[in-house]
Amino acid sequence: MAKVAWIGLGVMGYPMAGHILKKGGHDLVVYNRTNAKAQDWVAKHGKGRAAATPAEAADGADFVFCCVGNDDDLRQVTIGSNGAFGSVKKGAVFVDNTTASANVARELHAAAKAKGFDFLDAPVSGGQAGAEGGVLTVMVGGDAGVFERAKPVIAHYARMMNLIGPAGAGQLAKMVNQICIAGVVQGLAEGLHLAQKSGLDIPKVMETISKGAAQSWQMENRWQTMSDGKFDFGFAVDWMRKDLGICLDEARRAGASLPLTALVDQFYSEVQRQGGSRWDTSSLIARLNNADKK
Ligand code: NAP
For the whole model, what pTM was predicted? Predict the structure, then answer.
């Protein structure tokens, strides 16, 4: 049994930490900025303890997990005042599941090394359902030996995990993931839009083409809700714009050209202006339907 700390009990972190407790039987200390959520987590699980600060949670832990919002949030809970990096013990492993930049991952990897502990960037894919089911995909950046040590604990909330490369490589892989999703969703939105405008029998079209080369996870799982105009679930547009912003910054740094990603990012900004900040990413079709009404 290991001593585990968990920082950030949001939509993703709350169930992920729960899997570590339930499946791993580890001794868990949780921290959440809004303390009531940490108290609720402890009450719900009937085990574990809530800490008042990230530093208090991380103190004495063998593994410290983290899942907060963006780069700034991550810096705050690690190297900020009362941050976890002030108390992580030598030889421990810090696993960050936040979707953040590769730069912050490299920066924190170096800061951890300087203090005698290890850092893995380990963003996830699979959404709220994947977190609740403990079946996330985890893309990891860091050192191979460290990954091997953390693997059995990460496995409690993952179905697929891979060490992609050195520090930052997990975040870079997550960027590739988001770029691929953005393009596919826009293509699917346009396909459905044409099908609607042409009066096609949409279920029949989707049933047929989803068995051919146009098949995708988005098509299989989202065509129905997209054609019904239902977006009150899933991965929010605000989060997607945060992620695409990270991709576009990285592209500038690396000299990569991402014209479609830049365009879809702008389309999402139009969805936000339509009131869709919290809608699922499949709401790109709402933008086409809205343009139609004008
Ligand atoms: P969320 O529900 O908004 O939760 C964010 C968590 O981070 C909360 O516990 C929040 O605390 C904490 N937090 C934010 N800023 C903080 C700060 N400055 N200091 C301390 N704590 C802070 O977000 P989520 O959906 O769990 O997403 C978490 C991460 O996973 C994001 O990077 C997101 O892009 C990524 N992700 C999300 C999904 C998804 O489907 N939701 C899928 C894949 C990846 P409070 O409770 O006090 O606000």
Answer: 0.96
